[in-house]
Amino acid sequence: MNPPSGKQPASNKKKTPGCFGWGWCAFSSIFVLAGLWMTFQELRLWTYEEVPCQVQKFEILDEASNDEPFSARVQFTYQHNGQQYTGNRLTANEGRHEDYEHYVELEQEVQARGTCFLNPDQPSESILQRSRGAVWGGIAFTLFGSFFVAIGVFIIKASKDESKALSAKGSSKEFKHGGTIAAAFFGIFALAGVGVFFGSTLPMASKALSLRSWEPTPATVIWSRVRSHDSDDGTTYSPDIFYRYRYQDQEHRSNTFSLSSGSSSGRSGKQKIVDQYPRGKEFTCYVNPKKPWQAVGQPKLGWSALIMLLPLPFLAVGFGGVWWSLKKSRELKSPALPERKGHLPARSQPDKGNQKLKSSNRSMNFFGHLIFALFWCGIVSVFVVVAWGKWASGHPEWFLNIFLIPFILVGLIALLSLPYSFLAIFSPRFDLSVKDEDLRPGIATKFRWKQTGGSGQLTEMTITLVGQEEATYQRGTDRSTATSIFYQKDLFTTTSLPSMLQSECDLIFPHDALPTLKGQHNRIRWYIRMHAAVKSRPDVRERIDLILNPLTESDFR
């Protein structure tokens, strides 16, 4: 078997087009400029001077025929340099809103603050409220565009590096920026998952938990309708029910009917909900005693709680992909072991005594498994409770039940395998070592083991020497790895208990064995596979990597 060269023919490689990187940067720069402009416009408002004012009117208007039915009419007075002014603008960008509670929150804030903001260069220009969210939105938009611009820069740099490598005759230099670019792309998924988790899942879960203390209160429907939402993907619908209620002798209004404010396709299902709440219908809503202007018509999450599962695939794909990409990138950047080319490297001096080998950490494996199982099952259990409640009430949500099946199966597998990984901690543990550190083809040494802990009756042990080749193929920016075992030999097999507790066996590699190699495209790995069967305990399975050095001139003397 010929040693791998770690090269690929230049004709099989595809250049990463630099023009694509420049186009990517140019397109992404539009987002950066838009974000900077948004940020600048909002920061300009923060130069406005804050002065005391008296709010004379704060009226929330509703118009059921409008897609965004709510707006606010305000009037306030203030003084500047001894002159009195009257303002009527709530924010710098007047508009409408679909959520009644949005304006109630603003009213509570401006009444408590008792100030307004005026343009010092033109005192008659004033607003009652500055939007903090718009500033952060502009910054987020800028960072979002900058992230994509950075990807374009990586693509351009990678294209230049790869072109240089391909132009060098006989060069084995590889396109090493693929892992970084892949990590950047996976980072988009991770950021999306984090954003959805903190922006939607966490607030929804927090509100759902706080509902236990909300008080049931009689309410009356003012109007109800099915609201349509137009987008590039088509039209979606959501029920919109506006109602009033009295709490502590004060009237409040709200159009928050369920915890989820999202929309979905299918008008008929939303129409059925609206038909159950016609104008004038009395029902029970639930009021937040700490903030009486907050209420909800249906306190149960229902199938809409599935949105809380949305971050899971993004977080798993994102962070898992980033970890995998960076790991591959580090492997490519690590120095390759010497190859045999004409001359042989000098042989290193063997260490005296045993070379201790590292085995797996079973406790860490168990705790990692436990954290995953608790995290996964904790989230899925919320939806299982919702589905069970629907089933017990005689109105099962079939879509929710079917949708949950794969998530429940994953959770069950994780839970059922926990006892196995826990018991594995207490299986026999071994100290593993080889007599010499300098391992060479055809030169015999000893592999040694000794049980140092754990419990369980050993019944059989097999120790196997394995040689494995990994070949990595690059097709454009896609990378695939093929693995094959080219050598496998049992070094030791026994059912004798004393030999299993402590012993040694001959470790000798074939005379023509390829040394351990970590190249750009190929990798040769040697490892010992230890399998010890244990009665009433999980088997001991260890895989210990070995470094096989090439032969030197002195080895032939």
Summarize the structure.
With 557 residues, the chain is of the alpha+beta class. Helices cover 37% and strands 30% of the residues.
Your description of this structure?
The chain is an alpha+beta fold and 557 residues long. The protein is 37% helix and 30% strand. The strands form four sheets. Strands 3-2-1-4-5 form a five-stranded antiparallel beta sheet.
Largest sheet: 5 strands, antiparallel
Instruction: Give the SSE order as H and E letters.
Output: HEEEHEEHHEEEHEEHEHHHEEEEHEEEE
Output mean pLDDT: 78
Strand content: 25-35%
**How many helical elements?**
10
How much helical structure, as a percent, in the residues? 25-40%
Instruction: Tell me the radius of gyration.
Output: 34 Å
- List how many beta strands DSSP finds: 19
Shape: elongated
Structural class: alpha+beta
The poorly predicted ranges are 1-17, 168-176, 334-352
> Taking strands numbered 1, 2, ... along the chain, how are they ordered across the largest sheet?
3-2-1-4-5
Terminal Cα separation, in Å?
24 Å
Write a concise keyword list for the protein shown above:
elongated, alpha+beta, five-stranded antiparallel beta sheet, disordered N terminus, 37% helix, single chain, 10 helices, 557 residues
